[in-house]
Amino acid sequence: MANLVSHPDVVPLLSMRFGKGASALDRYLELEGYQSARKALEMGPEWIISEMKASGLRGRGGAGFPTGMKWSFVPKQSEKPKYVLVNGDESEPGTCKDRLIFEHDPHSVIEGTIIAGLAISAKMGFIYLRGEYRYLLKIIERAIEDAYAKGFLGKNIFGSGRDFDIVSHTGAGAYEVGEESALMESLEGKRGIPRIRPPFPAVVGLYGGPTVINNAETIATVPHVLRIGSAEYAKLGSERNGGTRLFCLSGHVQRPGVYELPMGYNLKKMIYEVAGGIPGGKQLKAVVPGGSSTPVLLPSEIDIGMDFDQVAKAGSMLGSGGVVVLDESVCMVEFALRTIKFYQHESCGWCIPCREGTDWLKKTLTRFHSGGGVNKDIDNIKYLAENMLGKTFCPLGDAAAMPTIAFIKKFRKEFEDHLDGKPCPYAHTAESVLV
Amino acid sequence: MSVQETIFTSELAARFDKLVTIYPLRRSALVPMLLYAQDEKGYLSDEVITEIAQRIGITELDTRNVISYYSLLRTQPAGRYHVQVCTNISCMLRGANEIFDHCKKTLGIGNKQTTPDGMFSLEEVECIGACSWGPAAQVNYDYYENLTPEELDKVLEKCRASVVQEGKGSQA
Ligand SMILES: Cc1cc2nc3c(=O)[nH]c(=O)nc-3n(C[C@H](O)[C@H](O)[C@H](O)COP(=O)(O)O)c2cc1C
Ligand code: FES
C-alpha cells in the first residue's frame, strides 16, 4: 500500500479523506460524502455545468482541457444513450495519483461520475481501471455495491426518480488505451486502436453515443467543487487554473510522494521544500515536470508556477502531474533511451509515423548509448522526432517526440560526449537498460 | 450463446454469465473475461480461448487478435509467482536496474523466462503506477515498493515459504 506523506503547504481538499477509512460508505457519509450529488440532483444540469465552468477545473489526465466546457459540448438531445467514462488507466511514467484516490476515496469517484452523468443526462457510467490495479478493482467494486445497496445507484437514485448505473471495468495492460478514443475501443472489447476525430467523443463516443471522458482525478474533484462552491475552488489555484491537484514527486528527492498542492505552486519550492531537495548533497540536473511525455526542464527553468499555462510558457507541459527529478549522476542519453523504449513498446502500431518513428528512435539511441554513435545521429534523432510531431493518428507519437527533441536541444553536449566509441561517461547502470 | 460444459470453476462460470449481461454490448466483457480466465487457469490455453470466444459470440481468431494487444494476457504458462520489475524512469533513478539484475541472478533466469520448477517467472515491465515509491515490482497482482535487493530476497522467500506451507509441489 502506497504510503502517504504531508507538508505544511499541502491543501487537503481532494485528499481530505485519505487515510481515514473512507472506502467504507458510512465513513464517507460522515465526511460530507454524497452531499454534492444530492445538491446536483436538486439544482439540475445547467447549474452543474456553470459551476464546473466557473471553478476553472481543467482535466487532470494531461491535456488540461476545461472540464465544464467539455461537458457542455454534449448535445442535449440524443437518440443514442449517453455515457460517462472515467479514465483510470494511469500509465504515464511518473504518475501514481489516481491510484491513491481509488484506494482511499473510491466513493468520490462514484459521486463524481453520478454528477457528470446528471450534467449531461446520461444514465450510465463506466470506471475503467488498468489491469495492474487489481486490488483497486476490488475496492471500487465493493464501493459500487455499497452505493447500490443504499439507493445511490440504480433505479430512482436518492429517491429522485432518476436512474444511474455504474459498471467498473478492468483493462489488461496497455498504455495506449489511456488515450480517450483507444479507451472506448478497449471498453468495447477490441484492441486499443485510436479512432479518427472528428467526430469527438462528446458527440459520437462509446457504443456510438455521446460520451464524456475524464481522468479519475478530474472526476473525484467534481464533488469537492460543488461542496465548497466554484468560487472558493477557483480561488485555491492560479489564474484560469482552478483548485489543487495531486503532484507525484519521484526520482532524486529526499521525500518522494504524492502531495496535493495549489495549482500554480512554484516548482522549485516543490522540489526543494516540499520534497526536501536532492539527496546526498548532489546537484540538480533536470526535471521532467508532468510525466515522461513532457519536455525536460533545466535547473535554470524551474522557477515557475505549476499550472497548465505557466509550464507551457516555459516550453513544457503540466501533463499528468508526475514530477520526475534527476540529479547530476544521471546520463541523459540513457534517460532519453529509457523514455523512448517505453513509447516504442507502447505504440499500438496502427499508424506508421509512430510505429516506425519510435522504433528507429529506440534503435538509434540504443546504438548511440552503447558507443556506436556518429555525429550525424544527433541531428538525425532530432529530425526523426520533429517529423513525428503532429503527424501521428493520436498524440502518442507526440508524447515520444516532444521529450526527445528537448533532450537533444538541452543536453547536446552529453550526446556528443558519447561519440567515437567512448564508453558512457555518465551512467553506472548502462547495460541492463538494453535488455 | 450459452455454454453447456464449461472448463472454468462454477464460480467463475457464473461470474461470466453475469458479466456478458451488464454492458450495452456483450463484447465489452471480453477483456475482463480473458484476464479472469487467465487468473484461474494460469494462461490462455486453446480451450480457454475456444470457450471465451463462444461465450462472447466472436471467432477465435478475433479473440486471439485482442489477446495479442494486451501485455498482461499470455498464451503460455508463467511461473506460479510472476515477478514484474518496473525499470521505467522514476524507478530507474532509484535503482530499478539493480533490482532487475538482482532478480536475474537470484532466480537464475532472464527476462520473460521461467525457473525450471515453474515457481518463478521474471519480466521487465513498464510503469506500474508506483513511481513515488520506486523501485517497485509486482508479484502477480501484489505491489512491493521502495525495494532493495535485500527486501526483494525477502519477498521471494515469502513466496517459496507459502508454497511449502500449502504442502503442494510447483504448478504452472
Ligand atoms: C497515449 C496517451 C495516453 C493517455 N493516458 C491517459 C491515462 O492513463 N489517464 C488519463 O486520464 N488520461 C490519459 N490520456 C489523456 C486522455 O486521452 C484524455 O485526454 C483524458 O482522459 C481526458 O480527461 P481530462 O479531461 O479529465 O484530463 C492519454 C492520452 C494519450 C495520448
Ligand atoms: S516508473 Fe516505476 S512505477 Fe512508475
Describe this structure in words.
The complex is a heterodimer of chains A (435) and B (172). Chain A has 17 helices and ten strands. Chain A has 435 residues and is α/β, with parallel strands linked by helices. Chain A folds into three domains: 25-236, 3-Layer(aba) Sandwich (Rossmann fold), CATH 3.40.50.11540; 244-327, Roll (Ubiquitin-like (UB roll)), CATH 3.10.20; 332-434, de novo design (two linked rop proteins) (Up-down Bundle), CATH 1.20.1440. In chain A, strand 2, helix 7 (134-149) and strand 3 form a beta-alpha-beta unit. Chain A is globular, with a radius of gyration of 22 Å. With 172 residues, chain B is α+β, with helices and mostly antiparallel strands. Chain B has two domains: 10-67, Orthogonal Bundle (Arc Repressor Mutant, subunit A); 81-166, Glutaredoxin (3-Layer(aba) Sandwich), CATH 3.40.30.10. Helices cover 44% and strands 12% of the residues of chain B. Chain B is elongated, with a radius of gyration of 18 Å. At the A-B interface, strand 3, strand 5, strand 10 and helix 13 of A face helix 2, helix 5 and helix 6 of B. Residues 59-63, 65, 70, 87, 89-92, 175-176, 178-180, 213-215, 218, 394-396, 399 of chain A line the site of flavin mononucleotide (FMN). FE2/S2 (inorganic) cluster (FES) binds next to helix 5 of chain B.
Keywords:
heterodimer; A: 435 residues; alpha/beta; Rossmann fold; Ubiquitin-like (UB roll); de novo design (two linked rop proteins); 3 domains; four-stranded parallel beta sheet; disordered C terminus; B: 172 residues; alpha+beta; Arc Repressor Mutant, subunit A; Glutaredoxin; five-stranded mixed beta sheet; 5 strands; 12% strand; binds flavin mononucleotide; binds FE2/S2 (inorganic) cluster
The percent range for helix content of chain A is 40-55%
How many strands in all of chain A?
10
What can be said about the biggest beta sheet of chain A? 4 strands, parallel
Name the beta content range of chain B: 5-15%
Q: Would you identify the CATH architecture of the largest domain in chain A?
A: 3-Layer(aba) Sandwich
**Percentage of residues in DSSP E strands of chain A:** 5-15%
Q: Largest sheet of chain B, if any?
A: 5 strands, mixed
Number of domains of chain A: 3
Major interchain interface with per-chain residue totals:
A-B, 62 and 48 residues
- Please state how the strands of the largest beta sheet of chain A are arranged side by side: 3-2-1-4
How many domains is the backbone of chain B divided into? 2
**H/E element sequence of chain B:** HHHHEHHEEEEH
User: Spans of chain B with pLDDT under 50 lasting ≥5 residues?
Assistant: none
> How many helices of chain A does DSSP assign?
17
Question: What ligand species are in this complex?
Answer: flavin mononucleotide, FE2/S2 (inorganic) cluster
**Class inferred from helices and paired strands of chain B:** alpha+beta
Indicate the percent of residues in helices of chain B. Answer: 40-55%
What shape does the CA trace of chain A take? globular
**Mean model confidence by pLDDT of chain A:** 95
CATH homologous superfamily classification of the largest domain in chain A:
NADH-ubiquinone oxidoreductase 51kDa subunit
What letter string, H or E per element, gives the SSE order of chain A? HHHHEHHEHEHEHHEEEHEEHEHHHHH
